[in-house]
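mind reviewing these tokens:
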Amino acid sequence: AETGSGASALVTATGSIAATQLLSSGGNFAVNTDKFTANATTGNIVVAGNVESSGTGNNLFTGNVGIGSSPVGNPATKFLAVGTAGSVAGGIQLWAANTQTHFLQFGDVASGTGYYKGAISYNHAGETLSLLQNAVTALSFTGSQAATFTGNVGIGLSADSDTALKIKANGNTYSTGNIILEDADSTTKSG
């Protein structure tokens, strides 16, 4: 394999990369021992700085991925952890054009609707947030915060197939289960 010029002891006897400096023929790529280490025994690669993948191919991580710290958590067998437990807040930012839609998908089969049996989507053109269940939109919120439920709704109990809205009070008194209707001037009616 080509190592370029300026390399000193690129590979040690144990197979670890221990280059003090590696320069490509164009002089644009440098690796220093305090910035890049690779351990042949553990298979770990540590980079002190930014990592950029500018190719068009896929990047595969067979283990868990941690951003900001080692991957800590137990959401699944393979997971992505962002932030540091107890000290640094994590976040994920998705960008799109104002005509596009984002998806966070939960799949169980790599075909058909199996890719998105459950999903959260955000449509920027209509400013609509939707929740999908069993590959169907179950709940959506428009830009004016109007909520649409695809199925029936139960509050305080499970919904059933023949009633659009069921409400059950907590406790034994009728007043705790009232429905309160309030108009724009705060006039209320209850029932």
Q: What stands out?
A: The longest strand covers residues 101-106. Residues 1-30 have pLDDT under 50 and may be disordered.
